């Protein structure tokens, strides 16, 4: 029995599954991640992405921030891949209870998932910092310079957690609840190096911890099953 076969068997015999995912879940949808060979960290920019996507840079150089943001973070034509779709099916079947994601692209919801806990926010939620009016991602994409509110003229900020900013406490608490109560935790498409998000998986106390990632992670030795294959291919083999 291969590791993928073992994984499918675990899924079939679990009814309280939680999925914890990172950028690798969306790369098969054409969204670049941060640390792969083709990721954002290897693009040619005047500043490294982790600098541009920081709170202090957003405040000090908002026009440069938004130039990068529109160019690299708003991938609005991307479509859900097999992993997104199968996770939505597992939730609909009552087996998957929550998705905890580090991604901000909204592809889980686009695939039909309902209970999605977004640790780092979403590009699809944007708010005027003055009057708090809501704006969608299309508005941001087609704006110029620093996006301005069409009601009061105030600056609009994405509801995305930048470097130097804290995570939402309610999202953390809900994530901890689902992870600690899960009978199976699937970690996919993440190198588990971004904290505090990566630390949440340590609250899982069960015996069905599955890691699906193309490269090795520091948690491999703690996992019950490790699969180093593309996540979409693995999930496509699940029959719900």
Automatic annotation (TrEMBL):
Catalytic activity: N(6)-acetyl-L-lysyl-[protein] + NAD(+) + H2O = 2''-O-acetyl-ADP-D-ribose + nicotinamide + L-lysyl-[protein]
The UniProt record lists the keyword Zinc: yes
Similarity comment text for this entry: Belongs to the sirtuin family. Class U subfamily.
UniProt keyword Iron-sulfur present: no
Subcellular localization, as worded in the UniProt entry: Cytoplasm
Pfam families: SIR2 (PF02146)
CC terms in the record's Gene Ontology section: cytoplasm
Source organism per UniProt: Megasphaera stantonii
Full protein name: NAD-dependent protein deacetylase
UniProt cross-references to HAMAP family, sorted A to Z: Sirtuin_ClassU
């Amino acid at each position: 029995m291969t590791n993928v076969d073992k994984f499918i068997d675990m899924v079939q015999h679990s009814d309280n599954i939680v999925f914890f995912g990172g950028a690798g879940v969306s790369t098969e949808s054409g969204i670049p991640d941060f640390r792969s060979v083709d990721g954002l960290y290897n693009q040619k920019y005047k500043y490294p992405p982790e600098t541009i996507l920081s709170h202090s840079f957003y405040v000090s150089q908002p026009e440069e921030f938004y130039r990068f943001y529109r160019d690299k973070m708003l991938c609005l034509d991307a479509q859900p891949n097999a992993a997104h779709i199968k996770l939505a099916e597992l939730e609909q079947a009552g087996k998957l209870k929550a998705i905890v994601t580090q991604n901000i692209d909204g592809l889980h919801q686009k695939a039909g998932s309902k209970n999605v806990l977004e640790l780092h926010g979403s590009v699809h939620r944007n708010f005027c910092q003055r009057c708090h009016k809501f704006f969608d991602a299309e508005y941001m994409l087609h704006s110029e310079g620093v996006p301005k509110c069409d009601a009061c003229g105030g600056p609009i900020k994405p509801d995305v957690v930048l470097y130097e900013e804290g995570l939402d406490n309610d999202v953390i608490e809900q994530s901890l609840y689902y992870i600690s109560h899960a009978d199976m935790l699937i970690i996919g498409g993440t190198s588990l190096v971004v904290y505090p998000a990566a630390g949440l998986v340590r609250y899982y106390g069960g015996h069905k911890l599955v890691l699906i990632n193309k490269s090795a992670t520091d948690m491999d030795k703690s996992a019950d099953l490790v699969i180093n294959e593309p996540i979409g291919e693995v999930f496509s083999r699940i029959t719900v």
